[in-house]
Amino acid sequence: DMLTDLGVEYVVIGHSERRQYFAETNETVNKRTKAALAGGLKPIICVGESLDQREQGVTEELVRMQVKIALNGVTADELKNVVIAYEPIWAIGTGKTATADQAEEVCAAIRKVVGELYGEDAAKGLTVQYGGSMNPKNAEELLGKPDVDGGLIGGASLKADQFAVIVDAATKG
Predict the structure, then answer these.
(1) pTM over 0.85
(2) Sequence-separated (6 or more) residues with CB below 8 Å from residue 53
(3) CA-to-CA distance for 127 and 116, rounded, in angstroms?
(4) Range of the domain at 66
(5) pLDDT tens over the chain, length 173 residues
(6) CB-based burial of residue 2 (10 Å sphere; 0-12 exposed, 13-18 middle, 19+ buried)?
(7) In sequence order, what are the beta bridge partners of 84?
(8) Fewest 10 Å CB contacts: which of 106, 144, 145, 150?
(9) What is the SS3 assignment for 147?
(10) Residue 127: beta bridge partners?
């Protein structure tokens, strides 16, 4: 209630740092998602894998599971207010980033599981962002992918000149 009173519209839920440092689980992400929606907020649900999980080849299975649990009990109507951000943990604050093809592959998998749960129209209407060290050098290529609808920008948002390049790249598509 306090957030909506302040005019907040979106809340980030399940960010990798919250999962790591505050023991947030897939189940608590689900509870917070439902609470945010009930409170009139739009959740940006973060999902993603560690470097070990990527190297073990379980990225898609893991992300599918995270999405399914996060959306458990969320109605199709509520889904219209949800954003999902693919946040490869190994690419946050490390200077590493997923290639545009890797980001597209996982964002497409997110859209696919949402389609299985809610139908193709809901999947097409869902906003899927990429949140793993998007920067001025890679923004245009990442945002040019069909299943990458936007970016969840971290450090680059604190530097106006860098952020302006990302915003420019986003407006080209």
Answers:
(1) yes
(2) 59, 62
(3) 16
(4) 2-172
(5) 899 999 999 999 999 999 999 999 999 999 999 999 999 999 999 999 998 999 899 999 999 999 999 999 999 999 999 999 999 998 876 767 789 999 999 999 999 999 999 999 999 999 999 998 888 999 999 999 999 999 999 888 999 999 999 999 999 86
(6) exposed
(7) 45, 128
(8) 144
(9) coil
(10) 83
What is d(CA 25, CA 69) in angstroms, rounded to the nearest whole number? 10
Please identify every residue annotated as catalytic: 15, 87
Place of tokens 């790591």: 20
What CATH number does residue 43 fall under? 3.20.20.70
Task: Count up the domains in the chain and report the number.
Answer: 1
Find all residues with CB under 8 Å of 108, minimum gap 6, and list them.
146, 147
Give SS3 for 31. helix
